[in-house]
Amino acid sequence: MTIEFYCFCLLRFEDLNLPIGILLYSAMTAYLWFVSSGFPDTFTAFGLSAYFFLLFTTTWRALARAKGSKTKTHHLTAIGCVLFVISDSIIIFDMFVRHLESQQFLIMSTYYAAQFLITLSAAQKFVDDGKIRKNA
């Protein structure tokens, strides 16, 4: 299981914030259309579309939850999800459109930053919960 899957399972579908969802899915569709000319077969196109749907849904939910939130954990998770989208988009572009000279640096820096921020948000959640229990 990937960290994206765990994030997807943790994010609730409260406060849908449809404008963010529509914007993200429109961007995802445009990006997949742009890179699809390099896909070798239908299986690849279907698999990447399904994966990007889950990834963008996770990002949508994280952004919707962070909007208006005063909690640091929500903002850290949202930024981490956006960085995962960037990292995976660079991978797809490099594999199917054109090789990038600095692809390894771009992919790994965004990937590790995303992992760090999401992990930091989880750690912050434990700290916040501990403070609440201590004060109660």
Descriptive overview:
This protein is mainly α. It has one domain (17-131). Helix content is 80%, strand content 0%. It contains five helices and no strands. Helix 1 (3-10) packs across helix 3 (42-66). It is globular, with a radius of gyration of 17 Å. The protein starts with a helix and ends with a helix. 24% of the residues are buried. The mean pLDDT is 88.
Structure summarized in a few sentences:
This protein is mostly helical. Helices cover 80% and strands 0% of the residues.
Protein topology:
Layout (H helix, E strand, L loop, with lengths): L2 H8 L7 H18 L6 H25 L5 H25 L6 H33 L1
Helix pairs in contact: 1-3, 2-3, 3-4, 4-5
Report the oligomer: single chain
Overall structural domain count: 1
Rg calc: 17 Å
Mean pLDDT: 88
Question: Main sheet?
Answer: none
Q: How many separate helices? A: 5
Total number of beta strands: 0
Give descriptors for this structure.
mainly alpha; 136 residues; 0% strand; single chain
